[in-house]
Design brief:
The complex is a heterodimer of chains A (353) and B (300). With 353 residues, chain A is mostly helical. Chain A has helices at 2-13, 19-38, 46-55, 68-102, 115-129, 138-160, 166-191, 196-204, 212-231, 233-239, 243-248, 253-275, 281-292, 297-321, 330-352. The chains are: A mainly alpha (353), B alpha/beta (300).
């Protein structure tokens, strides 16, 4: 306990993002996006991509050297995929960091309050009873609504358990809701085995069918949610010292918590609705930043957004190249390559102290 | 002359009468019979009259060979033929007690899930395991086995012969110049596909088509998930959609996919929607499947 409060006080004093780290994070995202756009089962040279990009800029009169097929592959299949992966990755990471701060729980991830289970149930019901299919337009809506409803239920349950133990009771409420909804989902799935593959393929998550339409739907949620969270990053530092301490500093803890949870949840639900369940990003990215840069949320929150975006773009590159031209589920990639990386970060940062 | 014709007619009539009694009064001499199914040599002592089928393909086979009247219950996924005695039994999560409750004298399964075969045998129920066929020959074998097991061996032979003749005719209907076409067989809208080593892939292979999923199947699963980029640049001449029922895919939705409008199959109208279950079963309806493929493959 003593160590915790010392750490928290340290976090409050710690500075925001230093300039070199800002550059590193920015370069990482830019590099990831370029790799994402440049790598795929179809080889398109970097020069061709640049010229093709310029040819879309009006008044420049650059002619694209690519065939119409390559143009279609690059801008209609690959580009939306890269952008969607960036949006989802950034959103999951920043939401993860927010949940960790709001609930003062380093194991919290964006799915803590049941958004994944709710979205999963929504998607399962839509596929099974709505016959919307794996890429139907109603599927994301069902997942989004399910995710929000689950978190709302967990929030109400957690609040009713008493404000004194607030942070802890929310975690338990989230667990309760998750287990309950998962039970329903498993039951529905087991009763309708003919839709098993569709449900399973949605749960695994991925960007193989990303379109600009999906990007357009997800982008506003990610923009609004992440802006709201970034604006409150200092408040997360205040919250990290404890509910009572934060209240004594003049913070309306309950209201702040609600605002941050709503922001993180709406963004996460939109991300999950577009891409299915992608584990790991929401935990590993914020913690890597804590270990490498700073424990202050002034650093963790904005860097999570940027690094999370780059991380998921790179993970998706691996998903579509490792067994190219076949695909791997992205959740496999994030955990398989993310876990060893995180283990290394954990070890080196320990020994450095 | 007339007399000769009459005699010939009479002989023909007699032959017909002789050939048909399988339906009404099967000879008792056919039993006991030993069937070499996937679960070993199974002895069937008498003509089964209370058959439970937990395999949608098994159900189609049984009805095709004329054993439909002996079937008392089929599983919840058996949706063909329509007049099969549907039940809530499941082939995926089989409940031995529920199956035994029907007091069956023969149970047909395609998967030995949770050791259901042994469990049923312990209760003294005869079980035939007829797993997913890898080849057309294996599919024929299963039809013959189910025919012999139910006292309809001659009809089963007729069914198989009819399928062979039809398939040959269908294959020949596609001109040689179109036999080299490339094909993409889609199982779901996230681009899971079937290679030439799968059953559906082998039927496509019979035509001589080049399957674009073959090169992608690095793990030899038979069902790799392809990337959209790869499919579009492979520019398949034929697209077979086995996700029309589950996922509402059609020639229209394929043409509307970003980047897909320019592929050969879309341009030449060779995007074929087939019923998901026809494409995933290995029963008599593979002929319908082949016919649909041929109709599209004949297009210039």
């Amino acid at each position: 306990m003593a160590v915790d409060s010392i750490r928290s006080a340290e976090a409050v004093r710690a500075r925001g993002v230093s300039r070199p780290w800002r550059l590193v994070a920015g370069a990482f995202l830019a590099g990831s996006l370029l790799v994402g756009l440049g790598v795929g089962p179809v080889g398109i040279g970097a020069g061709g991509i640049v010229e093709s990009a310029l040819s879309h800029v009006p008044l420049l009169h650059v002619h694209s050297p690519l065939s119409s097929l390559e143009e279609a592959v690059l801008w209609q299949i690959r580009a939306p995929r890269v952008v969607l992966a960036a949006l989802v990755g950034g959103m999951l990471a920043i939401a993860g960091s927010t949940y960790q701060g709001v609930f003062r729980n380093s194991l919290a991830d964006p799915y803590l309050l049941g958004v994944a289970a709710g979205a999963g149930l929504g998607a399962t019901l839509a596929i099974t009873y709505g016959h919307v299919g794996r890429t139907g337009a109603l599927l994301p809506l069902a997942a989004f609504v399910g995710g929000l409803a689950a978190v709302a239920a967990a929030y109400v349950l957690g609040r009713s358990a008493g404000a004194a133990r607030a942070a802890g009771s929310f975690v338990l409420a989230g667990l309760t809701v998750t287990l309950f909804l998962t039970a329903i989902q498993t039951f529905v799935q087991q009763q309708h085995t003919n839709t098993l593959r569709d449900v399973y393929s949605w749960l695994l998550g991925g960007f193989s069918t990303a379109t600009w339409g999906q990007v357009a739907v997800a982008a506003p949620y990610v923009a609004v949610s992440s802006t709201a969270i970034v604006l409150h990053r200092r408040m997360l530092d205040v919250l990290s010292v404890g509910d009572e301490e934060a209240a004594s500093l003049g913070v309306n803890v309950a209201r702040l918590r609600l605002l941050l949870v709503v922001a993180a949840t709406a963004g996460t639900a939109a991300a999950v609705a577009m891409s299915g369940l992608i584990a790991f990003v929401g935990i590993i990215v914020p913690h890597t930043i804590r270990l490498l840069v700073s424990t202050s949320y002034r650093a963790v929150v904005p860097l999570s957004l940027v690094v999370g975006a780059g991380f998921l773009v790179l993970a998706d590159v691996l998903a579509r190249t490792v067994v190219s031209p076949a695909e791997l589920p992205i959740g496999v990639v994030t955990a398989f390559f993310g876990a060893p990386f995180f283990a290394v970060v954990l070890r080196t940062s320990r020994s450095a102290r | 002359m007339l007399r000769r014709s009459l005699i010939a007619l009479a002989a023909l009539a007699a032959a017909l009468v002789a050939a048909s009694p399988g339906d009404t009064a099967p000879s008792a001499a056919a039993f006991p019979v030993t069937i070499h199914a996937a679960n070993g040599a199974v002895v069937i002592k008498a003509r089964p009259a209370r058959i439970v089928s937990l395999s949608p393909t098994g159900t189609e086979d049984l009805f095709a060979v004329g054993a439909g009247l002996q079937v008392i219950a089929v599983d919840n996924d058996s949706d063909y033929p329509k007049d099969a005695p549907h039940s809530t039994l499941s082939g995926y999560t089989p409940n031995v007690e529920a199956i035994a409750g029907y007091n069956p004298d023969l149970v047909v399964v395609s998967n030995d899930i949770d050791g259901v075969v042994e469990e049923l045998q312990k209760l003294g129920v005869t079980v035939l395991l007829e797993p997913a066929a890898d080849t057309v020959a294996q599919a024929y074998d299963e039809i013959r086995q189910l025919g012999s097991a139910t006292g309809h061996a001659p009809q089963a032979a007729t069914v198989v012969h009819g399928m062979e003749v039809s398939l040959t005719k269908i294959l020949r209907s596609v001109p040689k110049s179109n036999r080299h076409l490339s094909v993409y067989a889609e199982l779901d809208p996230t681009y899971y596909s079937a290679t030439s080593s799968t059953f559906i892939g082998r039927i496509l292979k019979l035509f001589g088509f080049r399957n674009i999923a073959d090169a992608a199947d690095t793990t030899h699963s038979g069902y790799p998930q392809l990337s959209a980029e790869y499919i579009v640049t492979s520019n398949p001449d034929i697209v077979v959609l086995a996700d029309t029922v589950c996922c509402g895919q059609s020639a229209k939705t394929v043409a509307a996919r970003p980047g897909w409008g320019g592929i050969s199959a879309v341009k030449h109208g060779r995007v074929i929607g087939v019923n998901d279950s026809v494409a995933s079963r290995w029963g008599p309806r593979i002929v319908d499947f082949a016919r649909a493929i041929a109709a599209a493959a004949r297009k210039k």
